[in-house]
Amino acid sequence: MSVIQKIRDKYAVVIVVVICVAIVSFLLQDAFFGRNSIMRRSTTVGKVNGEELDITQYQQMIQDAEAAARQQSPTGNLNEQVQQYAREQAWNQFVSEQIMTAQYDKLGIQVTENELVDQFSGKEPNPIVVQQFTDRKTGQFDRAALQQALSSVGQDQTGRMRTALKQMESYIIRSRMQEKYISLIKGGVYYPKWLAEAQIKDNSQFASVSYVSAPYASIADSTIKVTDSELNTYINNHKANFKTEEGRRVDYISFNALPSSQDTANALKVLLDAKDELDTTGLANIENFVKRNSDIPYFDGFVAKSALMVPQKDTIASLPVGTVFGPYFDNNLIVFAKMMDRKTLPDSVKVRHILIATANPQTGAGLPDSIAKIRIDSIEAAVKGGADFKALAAQLSDDPGSKDNGGEYDVTPSSSFVTEFKDFALDGKTGEMKVVKTQFGYHLIQIMSQKNFGPAVKVAYLGKPVEASKETDSKAYAAANEFAAQNHDAKTFEKSVQEKGLNKRIADNLRPMDFVIPGVGQARELVRWAYEAKKGDVSNVFTFEDKYVVAVLTGIRAEGTASLDEVRPQVEALVKKQKKAEQLIAKLNSPTSLEAAAAAVKQPQLKAENVNFATPFVENIGFEPRVVGAIFNKAWGVGKVTAPIEGNAGVFVVKVDGFTPNTQAVDPLSMATQYEQTVKGTLDQGGQLYEVLKKLNKIEDNRAKFF
């Protein structure tokens, strides 16, 4: 006990300090590394007035936008351009919702429950509701179908109907809020009568003038010297004209891994070996042969000659049956074409059909084959007996894609209908009706019309790509890697380009969220590097499909006012014009007459007629609003010579010879009304108003840190 007591007495303070340090360490660990720690990487991709968009939410919005785009794509595939559009669409949706919601809340705009119900069930339903529940047969709004859908929402076990209804409600609420907001803005558009009267008075005269023009072009640019200080002063005095967004500029060299002549020869050898088999393969076995040997899928159907989309199509379309043509190049493929068959077929056929589906082994849907055959036969008999084909299709057909339009389809030789269906449509005669069996069941098909009979061909293609070999690819990579290793800064990069005669390309104004660079393609990695590198840095080798790229960062542009380097040519031209104006004004030296002005600058006296204050364009002079303003300045009057006027194309001295009245009568009220309607029309489009609102809100875009 005495030992323990000694420890307590001697080390009590130390123990207390250790405990305190442990507690503080625990708290700091939680603060810096815990779930809500300040050191944890932010998942916020952007903010609007402090309202955050989380990366998870943003990705879901992108997926929704891509899903909508995929439904509109014929193949269901999305290229990089469409994917980038989906990303921008998702971001713009978030920004718009935050900005507009704040506006709605500020103005007290809302859509009540009763109003929403009225949008569905009122006397004048919302246009989106009318569109969704319009009878395709009659073209009329089907209120009964709407009520049935609303009443059956609770019985839908899948939840799809409820989801669709919620989406429709959300769309209606947003559109109604926007309509109310625009209506309020429109209510504030006012053009007072007194202002219209003043404008009419200003435009009530036409002037005839004499003038002397001293063009800026009369002084050579080479005689005007400007300093960087003068140029920067001009930029600072005109900042609004030099606003700029954040951007980067990179210069880059592309080392292309394109197929060599040897690669082409190797591909051709493989193709020639397979071509011998193509010569002897008949129609019955051609599909399997193409699947084994060709990179061009076999199309077991005819294509109208007019729709043939291959190089040298006229030659191929004229081949005798069984003949092989080639080799020829089709993009990066070497191809042989073999004529399998030819016919005279219509290029467009309109048919209508009724499908009675047979049992599907996977889903169990459909009727047993024998029952389906009996049913289709009875339908055929009913049609032949005078029954309405369109009504039977709507009532009995198992094809959801056509039953609502009377079972009609347009068939072409190259369309993707099942073989039996398409063969009857193309080979039958107008008016002919027949029961046709396909993998889907029994179809009663009637040919309604056939148009534009002409040659159609069935062609098998043996195609192989010409690809860069590993050796060719390795050479391109080695060249790129060597270039990157030998050039570590912008100076050596440029020197090597000049010495080796390389083709340097420039990617200017790269934005933080750019994904594609012209000439390179999808190059997100390069863009991200450009925003992390320092000016003058040279990149490592980037790999992009069939090319290797080495880049140097040559420009960094911050958001705000453009630097002199970015706008030097533009600013130099403006400052030189300003200095030329000063020289010309000094030469003119407040002339007392046009004759004195003409003599001072050695320019002729000229005339202009029908100058009106409403139009800043003057005949034979161009866009010169300062000159027009001076002409109608009462301080000068008729017969007096103006002081030198610094214009757009030169310095002018003007004398008004006389005024004539504008006899065109204008009603102030009509003028005000027209102006108000014009402004309201721009509000209906919404674009200009929204851009103004964006400038008034604080928007922070951090997406480039995540993508």
UniProtKB/TrEMBL annotation:
Keywords noted in UniProt: Cell inner membrane, Cell membrane, Chaperone, Isomerase, Membrane, Rotamase, Transmembrane, Transmembrane helix
Transmembrane segments: 12-33
One Gene Ontology molecular-function label: peptidyl-prolyl cis-trans isomerase activity
A GO cellular component annotation in the UniProt record: plasma membrane
Cell location: Cell inner membrane
UniProt-listed InterPro entries: PPIase_dom_sf, PPIase_PpiC, PpiD_chaperone, Trigger_fact/SurA_dom_sf
Gene3D superfamilies reported for this sequence: 3.10.50.40
Pfam families documented for this protein: Rotamase_3 (PF13616), SurA_N_2 (PF13623)
Domain PpiC: start-end pairs: 346-449
Membrane topology reported for the UniProt record: Single-pass type II membrane protein
Protein name per UniProt: Periplasmic chaperone PpiD
Source organism of this protein record: Chitinophaga silvisoli
